[in-house]
Amino acid sequence: MSVRRSGRRPGDPPTRAVILAAARVAFSVGGYDHATIRGIAARAGVDPALVLHYFGSKEQLFEAALDLPLRPAELVAEALTTDRDRVGEFAVRRFLTVWEDPQNKPIMMAMLRSVVSNEYAADLVRRLLAKMVLEPLATQLGLPDADLRASLLGTQFIGLALARYVARVEPIASADVERLVAAVGPTVQRYLSGDIGGGLPSG
Amino acid sequence: MSVRRSGRRPGDPPTRAVILAAARVAFSVGGYDHATIRGIAARAGVDPALVLHYFGSKEQLFEAALDLPLRPAELVAEALTTDRDRVGEFAVRRFLTVWEDPQNKPIMMAMLRSVVSNEYAADLVRRLLAKMVLEPLATQLGLPDADLRASLLGTQFIGLALARYVARVEPIASADVERLVAAVGPTVQRYLSGDIGGGLPSG
């Protein structure tokens, strides 16, 4: 009985999806640092050259692996149709909902661990979030200090995810999503469109 | 030529201080997980039994190592003499000032890395902060939901430290302390004494 080396026919199941799934597992287990193209290829049952053929580099593969939970274009479009005074609440609700989905949680956790442990990955995630989510949103809303606002938003979201999902700090870990939307939404709202000092009228 | 095994005379330099300094280095290099009583003793040039004699356990040693930068009793006393509407700004300014001090930065970094990588250390830091800083403050200010307020404060402070000192996200990494005090102070103020939902009057 012969065994085919590659283990897969082209497109059955779609090789790109198989590699992405393997990458999400690898990044979530070891973080950005420890994941390798070779290891991801082995996990997917394909040749490392095929991974590079589809994704170009480890950086681009990481970016593609993050795309599923974030759905950045969709997120921005939805935020822009939301009542402007409630964009903060919308963003917190959406952020937590993405995290609570068992399909997304491993890659979100991978992103968070990579941000904390690796400056390169931290910069990568920051640039991706800025390019895909925060800058389009800030530009559409026509805000000054878009880069400072974007990074302030990042501090609150990352701190919230760390407390709830990694450190499991109570009562945040067990709180209802809507309780946290009420508590944290106004912070996000102010960072996004309120007074953050620096010359704007105060109050 | 004989070499004394212990390498130090009792109290010269003060052994407790030498062990603490060694512990701060060990925790900051490897985080809570990787630091060992044996390794810290070796670094301090003392017997592991002496470390246990002074501090009792790795947990208690970690707690003692954190005490220097936090100075919790002092912090709470100062906060309580501050104008109540400016406690948020005071807390952000004080937090950043502690971090910027080169003497404190290694152990603050150790605390942050331990919180992120180790659930046990995360819980320990949370309990220490709650017991030493947040609960006394909340009790003195007579606030409801003190535990939720304390952990919301934690999310913002941890996210801010990660962005500025670990991930070095711009423009937060290079911003003046007072720019961040103005931007983040109101968030801390609201978590500490404002409306965080959950039945309080809104607004």
Largest interface: A-B, 40 and 40 residues
What is the overall number of helices of chain A?
A: 10
- Main sheet of chain A, how many strands, which sense, barrel? none
The number of E-state strands of chain A comes to 0
Task: Give the helix/strand class of chain A.
Answer: mainly alpha
- Beta-strand content of chain A: under 5%
Overall outline of chain A: globular
Helix content of chain A: over 70%
The averaged pLDDT of chain A comes out at 81
- Rg of chain A, please? 19 Å
What multimeric state do the chains show?
homodimer
Distance between the termini of chain A: 76 Å
Order of helices and strands of chain A: HHHHHHHHHH
